[in-house]
Design brief:
Helices cover 27% and strands 36% of the residues. It is α+β, with helices and mostly antiparallel strands. The two termini are 26 Å apart.
Length: 252
């Protein structure tokens, strides 16, 4: 089992594309069948945005974010709000969670459907990103995360009560294709926020200002699914490498 499937972790997929000067109304009209199906299945939709960008937050856990450059689909566990006696609000979180890789399958399907509904096959891709946002038990960190935290805190021999780290590193570079990952880790023994790790893996093609260097989106659902799955698989492979201690640290 992958370590991301053994913790509370949720996925986000984001694509940065060639600019498209559509309006929020245009975006909403193009993906209207997706929103209508969500409503038919009992979901509620909260809409936020401006003239050139819009977010659709569905109570089934999915959020779709669209603007002139980006197409993003994220999953988050719905939080139910109950009003108790006295008018106080109580937040109810899910008792059980779904493995990250299972949630990822749903996010892949959703972003492919969004891309198809946008129906802009000639737009080119500059960046693919997969984010894993993980809630962790500080007493039972995945081995690679524990090594990372130990390495960051190595100058100080005694216990660390607060850690906040943000590291962006390039992983591979081949011609116009580059892979990188943003690593964000935070822990505060005295704070209310839980220990959290966010891994934001990205694959970039060419330069946004030079469209001829970008990746053309494949046509057809099957090819589109295959392409998104390929990049997502590369991201998950790196998450596993990082989380299980496959990176080398000083002194090893």
């Amino acid at each position: 089992m992958l370590w991301v499937d053994g913790v509370i972790a949720v996925p986000t997929i984001g694509l940065q594309l060639e600019p498209y000067l559509g309006t929020a109304t245009d975006f909403a009209e193009r993906i209207r069948p997706i929103l209508a199906e969500a409503l038919r299945r009992g979901a509620e939709i909260k809409t936020e945005g401006g003239l050139f960008g819009v977010n659709f937050e569905l109570t089934n856990g999915y959020t779709i974010k669209l603007d002139h450059n980006n197409v993003v689909v994220e999953f988050g566990y719905p939080v139910q709000i109950h009003h108790e006696r006295g008018g106080f609000a109580a937040f109810k979180y899910p008792i059980s969670t779904t493995p990250f890789t299972t949630l990822l399958e749903g996010v892949v399907d959703m972003i492919v459907e969004v891309l198809q509904r946008l129906d802009q096959p000639n737009r080119k891709l500059h960046r693919f990103g997969l984010v894993a946002t993980c809630g962790l038990d500080p007493a039972a960190l995945p081995p690679g995360v524990a090594k990372f935290v130990e390495h960051v805190g190595s100058p100080w021999e005694r216990r660390k009560t607060k850690v906040k780290v943000d590291v962006t590193a390039y992983l591979t570079e081949s011609g116009d294709v580059r892979d990188r990952c943003h690593h964000k880790y935070s822990m505060d023994e005295d704070g209310e926020n839980p220990t959290q790790l966010q891994l934001d893996w990205q694959r970039l093609w060419g330069k946004l200002a030079a469209p001829e260097t970008l990746l053309s989106l494949p046509r057809g659902r099957d090819k589109l699914v295959s392409a998104v799955q390929e990049h997502a698989r590369a991201a998950v492979e790196y998450f596993e490498l990082f989380g299980m201690g496959g990176l080398k640290y000083g002194g090893e």
